[in-house]
Amino acid sequence: MSPRAWIRVVFIVFVCLLAQSTVLDAIRIAGIHPDIVWLIPISAALIDGPETGAIVGFWAGLAFDLVIPTPFGLTALVGCLLGYSTGSATAAMDRRVGWLRPTAALIGSVGADMLFAVLGAILGQQEMVQINFAALFGVIAVSAVILVMPVNRMMRWALTTETHRSTLIPAHAADRVW
Fold first, then answer.
1. How far apart are the two ends of the chain, measured CA to CA in Å?
2. Count of beta carbons in the 10 Å neighbourhood of residue 118
3. Contacts (Cβ under 8 Å, ≥6 apart) of 100
4. How confident is the model at residue 172 (pLDDT cuts 50, 70, 90)?
């Protein structure tokens, strides 16, 4: 990734962290709040492959680990695994199909929350598995399908380089001096 892409990804992680800690944490349905953290590596993996998904997932998870009261590094580990597995699972697919982003967001977010809870319990946070998993998966699934499009659009802006952007001006017309 270029330095410009890194700066943009850091900005997106900051915006998502701000949205999570101010707006999404205040929305409670059956005691569960939506999570936006898993959508960052999912979107990065869908746009630029498993390696980028893993790297972005690790650093985004590490940023979120700074503000949540769970074992430090747990979100980074799950984000890294989620980004790589999403990119690997969708590598052979046409990523332009409309159903792929919501489906990957739904499956990835629910799977990441399951892994997060199990690993948290293994690391001594027994309260992480003493919740209503049906409500958790329902809230996470619906919020992931709704929030994946804006997160994906931001991540596409961050990871698309200038040479790969499509333009409305043909190449020969752009060279002309008006």
1. 34
2. 13
3. 46, 90, 93, 94
4. low
What sign does the dihedral 46-88-56-101 (CA atoms) show? positive
CA gap 112, 125 in Å, rounded: 16
Rounded to whole angstroms, the Cα distance separating 21 from 15 reads 10
Contact 5, 159 (CB under 8 A): yes
pLDDT band at 132 (very low <50, low <70, confident <90, very high): confident
Contacts of residue 87, Cβ cutoff 8 Å, sequence gap at least 6: 45, 46, 48, 49, 50, 51, 52, 53, 54
69-84, pLDDT tens digit by residue? 888 999 999 999 999 9
Q: How far apart are CA 45 and CA 107, in angstroms?
A: 14
CA atoms 11, 156, 86, 31: torsion sign = positive
- The amino acid at residue 4 is R
For the entire predicted model, the pTM comes to 0.84
Distances (CA, A) of 35 to 105, 174, 176: 11, 43, 48
Q: How big is the chain by its Cα radius of gyration, in Å?
A: 17
Task: Give pLDDT tens digits for 58-113.
Answer: 999 999 999 988 889 999 999 999 999 999 999 888 877 888 999 999 999 999 99
3-state helix, strand, coil in the chain (%, to 5): 70, 0, 30
Quick one: tokens of 102? 């919501």
